[in-house]
Task: structure prediction
Amino acid sequence: METPLHQQHVDLNAQLTDFAGWQMPLKYGSETSEHCTVRRDVGLFDLSHMGEIYVFGNDAIEFLNQALVSDIAKVKIGRAKYTMICDESGGAIDDLVVYRLAETDFMIVANASNANTVAAELIKRADNFDVTIMDRSLDTALVAIQGPEAATHLLKWVSAETISALKNYSCVEVELDGVAVLLARTGYTGEDGFEIFVSIDHVAQIWDLFIKAGIAPIGLAARDTLRLEAGMPLYGHELNLEITPIHAGLARIVALDKSDFIGKQALVELSSKIDRRLVGIELETRRIARAGFNLVDQAGVVVGQVTSGAFSPTLGKSIAMAYLDAAVDQATANISVDIRGTLEAAKVVSLPFYRRES
Amino acid sequence: MSVPANLNFTAEHEWLDKTAGTATVGITLYAADALGDVVFVKLPDVGSLIAAGAVCGELESTKSLSDLYAPAAGKITEINQAAIDNPALINLDPYGSGWLFKIEIEAVGDLLTAAQYQTLIA
Result:
């Protein structure tokens, strides 16, 4: 499938790649430069492949509290929450951001690869609730501007009052260049920034506006290294059906004190006897520890596996996320990564690798 | 994409400049673009002997790992430490400051002329 901005990407000479069935821009030039542009200034992303699923109705809160792992009643109107939908055994079906638009109106943003599954699963879980679920992924486009200068740029079109009132993980309906959009202060880069949900009929106008304002387009390659530095999981790498939020270091999003939700029992049991944990890895070599490579201990025993790895442009080091056996003492562990038969020295570090100055 | 007319090439996208006494070797702009941003370079040791056509090093980019093939047989006389320390040079200037190593040639391998290489990548 092509996003509504396909022609824009072609005109910008993007190298396109298939991602979850979508033709997406991998990069427009150097992925390293694109990465650094977002860390230093601001960049523009087409994220129209992401899924947008609307939930509304009298039972919306009770329904979402049953279907998702977080306490949705605590999400105030105009706020957003990072959460997860799990199966009965606690495995991650997808990680999500839930936006509360009104008392009983919610928008759920799902990964492109999982949007259909999430919509179908929500519908299945809605049987006994007074809710309506609408998958609007195909008529909702999404662009993001991310970087320390994102707010400054946005001042050209949105009032200073609106921007300063829009806290991190908040959203508001505004007009941008005469187009009705949902403006959210969320993102996946570790920087300040905004995500703009807009009809596919008007997204080109918004994109062109940002491009004309000099905001550089950024492809998925840089999006991946930005989120990795920020220690954010990517579904299919750090998360899948065999991995629970507890394994992924995301116990904070699981409301075990909620009366009940799908996956609760399994997650309660797991939280006291976890067998592996998501960790950060820094290597001495510049070689990349790619997904699937093994972590080995001093005795050569496999003690974990890399889920994502890259050369970090910000740190100037090879970094990775990996699942490490819980029995390994992270502080004293002498870990190597098996890179195609060569053992490369590595150390376990706390996540994230990069945190912006606030 | 034009290629420098004074160089020779391998089908594996290395270039070889034999105009001086010792030849300089690098990868082509076409290869650098195809690889993406190079983050790690492994080159043969200075003084080592390499065989024409043999794997003599590796280049790792953000997306993949590629072997480096020796375009000639001979002794390595110098390696580009600047490119090892800052592999971005290979993407920025593959025919200039992003060169990889110098070799005292004993025999060349199967080399292409600039015109032949141009046809290969067309």
